[in-house]
Amino acid sequence: MNIAGVQFRKAGKIYDFMYDGLELLREDVVVVKTQDGAVMGSVAILSKRQPAQNQVLMPILRLATDEDFKRREKYQRKAQVAKDFCKRKISETGLPMKLVEVEYLLSGGKATFYFTADERVDFRQLVKDLVNRFRIRVELRQIGVRDEAKVVGGIGVCGRELCCSTWLRDFEPISVGMAKTQNLNSSPSKLAGQCGRLRCCLRYENQTYQELRKGLPSSCGSCAKTKVGTGKVIGLNILEQKFMLRLDDSEKVIELGPQDFIQELSSSHFDRNDSAEDFKKLEDLHSHEPAEQD
Fold it and tell me: Residue 124: which of 93, 81, 169, 161 has the closest Cα?
């Protein structure tokens, strides 16, 4: 027995499955057994390691056949019909939820309806309507807004496809402090991604900015002691490792670098273009979502 990592959607989480007697390559489409039934996925990782003695893994049943692809297309069409019906029911009943996606198992015996909501939703009647209409097992599963963006996809402000829907498998913590570290505009509209939360890319260069900030004043508005005198920091260019200082004794503005900086003499303040209110809004962007419900 060998282990292969299988993903069920592009940039999705990778799950381990065991296989034996199959010649697999990366990106092969396979049919695997899950607790709910047979599902199609693609091979993301191949490993020659053996399962641990106490490790129980589901098997890869086979390489996907033409019949499997035809069956998947069939149930994708059914999923679209179910999605339209469910959206209509949600609208008619006024349920405070947003349907994101519907997925059918390869067997067609069960469908999962993914939705977002700001609060817990009593969807018992909706489940009954779906079961009566489609005569299948139905599961309603709440997901977060980041997961919604991953499913829906789109184009980011950088002009490229969203990272979460192309290659980013897991969502790592992102904080308002990362925006401050990078000296970015504190306007929530500038820092929010398609999901409405802080953009994932804030994390990518954060470590670099932390290193570059060493030896520089913490922010504009602070008072700094330097080799040429003390003054107020009125400009900060982290990437070029430079800061602009207005000297106290002459009001002269000079450009300095880490080699000139000694220490700060007062606590940091927000940049004149920022405000405490803006950063409060950023904190709200990073607030916790309601607990997911099945």
Answer: 93
CA distances from residue 171 to 147, 164, 201, 228, 239 in whole angstroms, order as listed: 9, 8, 11, 45, 26
Beta-carbon contacts of 132 under 8 Å, excluding residues fewer than 6 positions away, are none
Output the CATH code of domain 214-264: 2.30.30
The CATH architecture to which 69-146 belongs is 2-Layer Sandwich (3.30)
In the chain, domain spans: 2-64, 69-146, 172-208+275-285, 214-264
Phi, psi of 130 (to 5 degrees): -70, -40
Q: How many CB atoms within 10 Å of residue 45?
A: 12
Residue pLDDT tens, the chain, 294 long = 788 999 998 888 999 999 988 999 999 999 999 988 899 999 999 876 666 777 789 999 999 999 999 999 999 999 999 999 999 999 999 999 999 999 999 999 999 999 999 999 999 999 999 999 999 999 999 999 999 999 999 999 889 999 999 999 888 888 888 988 888 877 777 889 989 899 999 999 899 999 998 889 988 888 999 999 999 999 889 999 999 999 988 878 999 999 999 998 864 444 444 445 555 555 555 555 555 566
Tokens of 82: 């179910």
| 3 state DSSP class of 158 | coil
Phi and psi of 116, rounded to 5°?
-115, 155
Starting from the edge strand earliest in sequence, which strands make up the sheet with 98-104, in order? 98-104, 110-116, 137-142
